[in-house]
TrEMBL record:
Domain of life of the source: Bacteria
Lineage: Bacteria, Bacillati, Bacillota, Clostridia, Eubacteriales
UniProt protein name: Lipoprotein
Keywords: Signal
Signal peptide as annotated in the record: 1-29
Length: 310
């Protein structure tokens, strides 16, 4: 049976079809638009994740400054050693040797310093048991230079004094020591606990008539990390050096035997005991016992004698 559609119904049907098409188109457009926004958001998020992040690191590697002898440039009397930098604190010693001919009775200056460190600057206070007090400001310029500013608060009459003002310090090296001649066969690379792998250097000062022996610890570049300030007789040869824990405290000590240049049978032994802070010290009474008992001819004899003491 055929359905007849009059003109009025045709108009209504056309309107309905048109509305249906429009609604369908809008729905598709909305889906496309939503997908486009979603894709753009995803691309933006991915771009953010893939963008490199710049990390600014203002920290300073303080290891390059620690345990070195920093000497005043063009002047050998004033120096300092930073023994430790940790927990934003710098700890060390400031020294001034008495090279003056004006008053030979004045003692050399040696004061402990400690202070807060921030990035490339340490602001420290120094003092000693004799009454010297003052401030030491250190600015770390490079691994070969530190700027130091010294201000004096109190002076002790018994000692020489550091110079006032701002100065530039550089690491002291073996090559800086005038007249120093290394004894290669008695110089060794060695691991000395907190010092790590360093070089023990034996040598003589040949510039004068006395010719003393001297001993140092240096790094691979020859920068002096420690001066043993030996007080052995003049004109002796270094016969033997041994690194071992003599007093059983877990730290390596150093046995040194020297002999007279003109009589190799005339020997003298000394023992440098390592302390917890990495410094070394002699027991003068013990050295005297070793030498008076003649237990000083070789390392084995010294070791046997010391075994009965510890």
């Amino acid at each position: 049976m055929a359905i007849k559609i009059n003109s009025k119904n045709k108009k209504i049907l056309l309107v309905l079809i048109t509305l249906s098409l429009l609604l369908t188109g809008c729905g598709n457009a909305e889906k496309v638009s939503t997908a486009t926004v979603s894709d753009a958001s995803a691309k933006s998020s991915a771009a953010k994740k893939s963008s490199p992040t710049t990390v600014t690191n203002d920290s300073v590697d303080y290891n390059q400054y620690v345990k070195k002898v920093w000497k005043l440039k063009n002047n050998s009397d004033m120096s300092f050693v930073i023994s430790k930098i940790e927990n934003s604190k710098a700890i060390g010693k400031l020294s001034v040797l008495n090279y003056t001919t004006a008053d030979k009775n004045l003692q050399s200056f040696e004061a402990d310093f400690e202070g807060e460190i921030n990035k490339d600057t340490a602001v420290c206070q120094y003092n000693d048991s004799k009454g010297n007090k003052g401030s030491l400001k250190l600015v770390f310029k490079s691994n070969q230079e530190i700027e130091g500013t010294i201000t004096i608060a109190d002076k002790a009459k018994a000692t020489v004094q550091p110079s006032l003002g701002t100065f530039y310090f550089a690491p002291e090296t073996i090559k800086d020591i005038k007249g120093f001649s290394p004894i290669e066969k008695q110089s060794f690379m060695v691991n000395l606990n907190s010092w790590g792998n360093i070089k023990f250097v034996s040598g003589k000062l040949t510039g004068g008539s006395h010719v003393p022996v001297e001993f140092y610890l240096t790094d691979k570049d020859g920068d002096i990390l420690y001066d043993f300030a030996a007080t052995l007789p003049y004109r002796v040869d270094v016969k033997a050096v041994s690194f071992e824990d003599v007093n059983k405290d877990g730290l390596k000590d150093i046995i040194i035997i020297v002999n007279d240049e003109d009589d190799s049978s005339n020997c003298l032994a000394t023992v440098y005991f390592q302390k917890a802070d990495g410094s070394f010290a002699n027991d003068m009474k013990l050295d005297q016992e070793i030498n008076e008992s003649k237990n000083n001819k070789d390392v084995k004899t010294v070791r046997t004698f010391l075994a009965s003491k510890f």
